[in-house]
Design goal:
Layout lengths: L1 H30 L2 H21 L3 H19 L6 H22 L7 H6 L7 H30 L1 H6 L4 H23 L4 H12 L6 H26 L3 H25 L1
Helix pairs in contact: 1-6, 1-8, 1-9, 1-10, 2-3, 2-4, 2-8, 3-8, 6-8, 9-10, 9-11, 10-11
Length: about 260
């Protein structure tokens, strides 16, 4: 019965993350922001470290750190540094600083593997409430800004011509990304959260005929990845976070090879 309880909590929490990661991941794919997502995810470890240091809620610390990094990158993009160089610098330096800082905090016992790769099976009821609360916020806000964000993704000039505010919309998008990363750390960890955002969205592309359809299919693929990944983890005794990502990768490969076969005919 105990096994059933923690497996059910892991399933509910994982599905909550997958549902909001799907549509948000589509915009990451469309905007080609995979490296940006990686940078935010790696910076999350620094947020965790600061949360432990200042004795504040880890989710709030990660969210605040991700938001600060997002707007810092916007400011630094005006310098002479190329964007990819800037992202690489911030991505790996924040991860390294977070790991080094954790090493100095000898008075705290930290599950480093859980932070890096997730520990979905340790999810408590409060974690589920936080995940589904974040899920509702992300999906509701995304619903209201969907058209403006999509038009700004296609063309910033068109968005401005239609009276939209692409800069404001993109800022909201960054806040949503920070929120997803903050509530998802326990699911797949800081090293694999970007995979849960990108792979289901990329896997959905061959099967979708519209942006909205792609977002829904991405969420569905994410949910299926969580279900089958957890089942594989439970039965094969493999790490839960990486198992979820591997299942998502298999689904991407199925769609990719189907596209190749279709174009060859």
């Amino acid at each position: 019965m105990l096994i059933d309880d923690f497996f059910l909590r892991a399933l509910i929490g994982g599905i909550g993350v997958a549902l909001m990661a799907g549509p948000l991941g589509c915009f990451i794919v469309w905007k080609r922001l995979a490296y940006f997502g990686d940078t935010l995810a790696h910076a999350a470890l620094l947020g965790v470290t600061l949360g432990f240091l200042w004795d504040i809620n880890v989710v709030l610390a990660v969210f605040a750190g991700s938001v600060l990094l997002s707007f810092s990158m916007l400011a630094l993009q005006r310098t002479s540094l190329p964007s990819d160089t800037l992202l690489g610098l911030l991505s790996h330096s924040t991860l390294a600083i977070g790991l080094v800082a954790l090493g100095f905090m000898t008075w705290i016992r930290v599950d480093l593997m859980g932070l890096l790769f997730g520990d979905i099976l340790s999810i408590a009821m409060m974690d589920i409430l936080v995940i589904w609360g974040g899920n509702l916020i992300v999906l509701i806000v995304l619903f209201y800004i969907w058209r403006g964000l999509f038009v700004a993704t296609v063309s910033k000039d068109i968005a401005i011509a239609e009276g939209m505010r692409p800069e404001q919309t993109n800022a909201i998008f960054m806040l949503l990304m920070a929120l997803v990363i903050a509530v998802s750390i326990k699911i797949v960890g800081v090293l694999l959260i970007t995979a849960l955002l990108i792979i289901p969205a990329a896997a959905a592309r061959p099967f979708a005929r519209s942006p909205e359809q792609m977002a829904m299919i991405a969420s569905l693929i994410g949910v299926m990845s969580v279900i089958f990944g957890l089942l594989a983890s439970f039965n094969l005794d493999t790490p839960s976070g990486p198992s979820i990502v591997v299942v998502a990768l298999i689904m991407f490969c199925v769609g990719f090879f189907q596209t190749i076969l279709r174009s060859a005919r």
